[in-house]
Amino acid sequence: MRTAIRQAQRAADAKEVPVGAAIYRGSRLIAQAHNQVETLKDPTAHAEIIAITQAANALGDWRLNDCVLYVTKEPCPMCAGAIVLARLPMVVWGVTDPQRGGAISLFQILQNPALNHRTDYRAGFMEEPCRAILQGFFKELRSG
Questions:
Q1: How many helical (H) and strand (E) elements, i.e. helices and strands, does the chain have?
Q2: How far apart are CA 33 and CA 23, in angstroms?
Q3: Residues classed as catalytic
Q4: Could you read off the pLDDT of 12-69 as tens digits, one per residue?
Q5: Which entry of 75, 76, 85, 135 is 20 to 30 Å from 98 by CA?
Protein backbone atom coordinates (compact mmCIF):
# COMPACT_ATOMS: atom_id res chain seq x y z
CA MET A 1 0.00 0.00 0.00
CA ARG A 2 2.93 2.33 0.56
CA THR A 3 3.62 2.26 -3.18
CA ALA A 4 -0.01 3.18 -3.90
CA ILE A 5 0.18 6.03 -1.36
CA ARG A 6 3.31 7.39 -3.05
CA GLN A 7 1.47 7.25 -6.36
CA ALA A 8 -1.51 9.09 -4.83
CA GLN A 9 0.86 11.85 -3.74
CA ARG A 10 2.20 12.07 -7.29
CA ALA A 11 -1.39 12.53 -8.48
CA ALA A 12 -1.99 15.30 -5.93
CA ASP A 13 1.24 17.02 -6.98
CA ALA A 14 -0.05 16.95 -10.59
CA LYS A 15 -3.42 18.42 -9.49
CA GLU A 16 -5.16 15.10 -10.13
CA VAL A 17 -7.58 13.48 -7.69
CA PRO A 18 -5.06 11.70 -5.47
CA VAL A 19 -5.66 8.03 -6.05
CA GLY A 20 -2.75 5.65 -6.43
CA ALA A 21 -2.58 1.97 -7.29
CA ALA A 22 0.01 -0.81 -7.25
CA ILE A 23 -0.20 -4.41 -8.42
CA TYR A 24 1.97 -7.12 -6.97
CA ARG A 25 2.53 -10.68 -8.13
CA GLY A 26 3.77 -12.33 -4.98
CA SER A 27 6.34 -9.92 -3.58
CA ARG A 28 7.18 -8.45 -7.01
CA LEU A 29 5.81 -5.04 -7.97
CA ILE A 30 4.61 -5.31 -11.58
CA ALA A 31 2.59 -2.10 -11.95
CA GLN A 32 2.10 1.26 -10.29
CA ALA A 33 0.04 4.24 -11.38
CA HIS A 34 -1.88 7.29 -10.29
CA ASN A 35 -4.91 9.11 -11.66
CA GLN A 36 -4.14 10.97 -14.89
CA VAL A 37 -7.62 12.02 -16.03
CA GLU A 38 -6.73 15.72 -16.30
CA THR A 39 -3.22 15.17 -17.62
CA LEU A 40 -4.31 12.81 -20.40
CA LYS A 41 -7.76 14.36 -20.90
CA ASP A 42 -9.10 10.81 -20.64
CA PRO A 43 -12.01 9.90 -18.35
CA THR A 44 -10.76 6.31 -18.16
CA ALA A 45 -7.26 7.24 -16.93
CA HIS A 46 -7.92 6.11 -13.37
CA ALA A 47 -5.03 4.67 -11.37
CA GLU A 48 -6.52 1.18 -11.36
CA ILE A 49 -7.09 1.07 -15.13
CA ILE A 50 -3.57 2.27 -15.89
CA ALA A 51 -2.07 -0.21 -13.40
CA ILE A 52 -4.12 -3.11 -14.83
CA THR A 53 -2.87 -2.25 -18.33
CA GLN A 54 0.74 -2.09 -17.09
CA ALA A 55 0.39 -5.42 -15.25
CA ALA A 56 -1.13 -7.15 -18.29
CA ASN A 57 1.73 -5.86 -20.43
CA ALA A 58 4.32 -6.96 -17.85
CA LEU A 59 2.88 -10.48 -17.71
CA GLY A 60 1.93 -10.78 -21.37
CA ASP A 61 -1.58 -11.83 -20.35
CA TRP A 62 -4.79 -10.00 -19.49
CA ARG A 63 -5.57 -12.55 -16.79
CA LEU A 64 -4.06 -11.31 -13.55
CA ASN A 65 -5.03 -14.49 -11.67
CA ASP A 66 -2.22 -14.45 -9.15
CA CYS A 67 -1.91 -10.73 -8.46
CA VAL A 68 -3.11 -8.32 -5.79
CA LEU A 69 -4.18 -4.75 -6.47
CA TYR A 70 -3.60 -2.14 -3.77
CA VAL A 71 -5.43 1.16 -4.22
CA THR A 72 -5.83 4.13 -1.92
CA LYS A 73 -9.61 4.53 -2.46
CA GLU A 74 -12.44 2.11 -3.16
CA PRO A 75 -12.67 1.55 -6.92
CA CYS A 76 -15.42 3.27 -8.89
CA PRO A 77 -17.86 1.14 -10.96
CA MET A 78 -15.65 1.35 -14.07
CA CYS A 79 -12.56 0.24 -12.19
CA ALA A 80 -14.42 -2.46 -10.25
CA GLY A 81 -15.62 -3.87 -13.57
CA ALA A 82 -12.09 -3.87 -14.95
CA ILE A 83 -10.84 -5.60 -11.79
CA VAL A 84 -13.36 -8.41 -12.28
CA LEU A 85 -12.60 -8.67 -16.01
CA ALA A 86 -8.87 -8.89 -15.29
CA ARG A 87 -9.55 -11.83 -12.95
CA LEU A 88 -7.74 -10.15 -10.06
CA PRO A 89 -8.39 -12.40 -7.07
CA MET A 90 -7.86 -9.68 -4.43
CA VAL A 91 -8.08 -5.91 -4.12
CA VAL A 92 -7.04 -4.01 -1.01
CA TRP A 93 -7.99 -0.38 -0.49
CA GLY A 94 -7.62 2.33 2.10
CA VAL A 95 -10.69 4.58 2.02
CA THR A 96 -14.19 3.34 1.27
CA ASP A 97 -16.26 5.68 -0.92
CA PRO A 98 -19.93 5.51 0.11
CA GLN A 99 -20.99 8.05 -2.54
CA ARG A 100 -19.25 6.63 -5.62
CA GLY A 101 -17.77 3.26 -4.69
CA GLY A 102 -18.34 0.48 -7.16
CA ALA A 103 -16.75 -2.36 -5.22
CA ILE A 104 -19.01 -2.64 -2.15
CA SER A 105 -20.58 0.75 -1.36
CA LEU A 106 -22.88 2.18 -4.02
CA PHE A 107 -22.58 -0.91 -6.22
CA GLN A 108 -21.37 -4.39 -5.25
CA ILE A 109 -19.55 -5.31 -8.44
CA LEU A 110 -16.64 -7.31 -6.98
CA GLN A 111 -18.85 -10.03 -5.52
CA ASN A 112 -21.77 -9.84 -7.96
CA PRO A 113 -23.03 -13.40 -8.59
CA ALA A 114 -24.21 -12.47 -12.09
CA LEU A 115 -20.61 -11.98 -13.21
CA ASN A 116 -18.29 -14.82 -14.21
CA HIS A 117 -15.60 -13.95 -11.67
CA ARG A 118 -15.56 -12.68 -8.10
CA THR A 119 -12.83 -10.64 -6.47
CA ASP A 120 -12.15 -10.75 -2.74
CA TYR A 121 -11.35 -7.50 -1.00
CA ARG A 122 -10.01 -5.92 2.13
CA ALA A 123 -11.25 -2.43 2.93
CA GLY A 124 -9.74 0.07 5.36
CA PHE A 125 -6.10 -1.01 5.03
CA MET A 126 -3.84 1.93 5.97
CA GLU A 127 -6.97 4.05 5.86
CA GLU A 128 -5.63 7.09 7.72
CA PRO A 129 -2.74 8.01 5.38
CA CYS A 130 -5.00 7.36 2.36
CA ARG A 131 -7.73 9.59 3.83
CA ALA A 132 -5.23 12.32 4.74
CA ILE A 133 -4.04 12.67 1.12
CA LEU A 134 -7.60 12.91 -0.19
CA GLN A 135 -8.77 15.35 2.47
CA GLY A 136 -5.68 17.52 2.11
CA PHE A 137 -6.12 17.68 -1.66
CA PHE A 138 -9.78 18.71 -1.51
CA LYS A 139 -9.18 21.17 1.34
CA GLU A 140 -6.49 22.89 -0.73
CA LEU A 141 -8.69 22.82 -3.83
CA ARG A 142 -11.57 24.53 -1.99
CA SER A 143 -9.31 27.17 -0.42
CA GLY A 144 -7.54 28.07 -3.64
A1: 5, 5
A2: 9
A3: 48
A4: 999 999 999 999 999 999 999 999 999 999 999 999 999 999 999 999 999 999 999 9
A5: 85
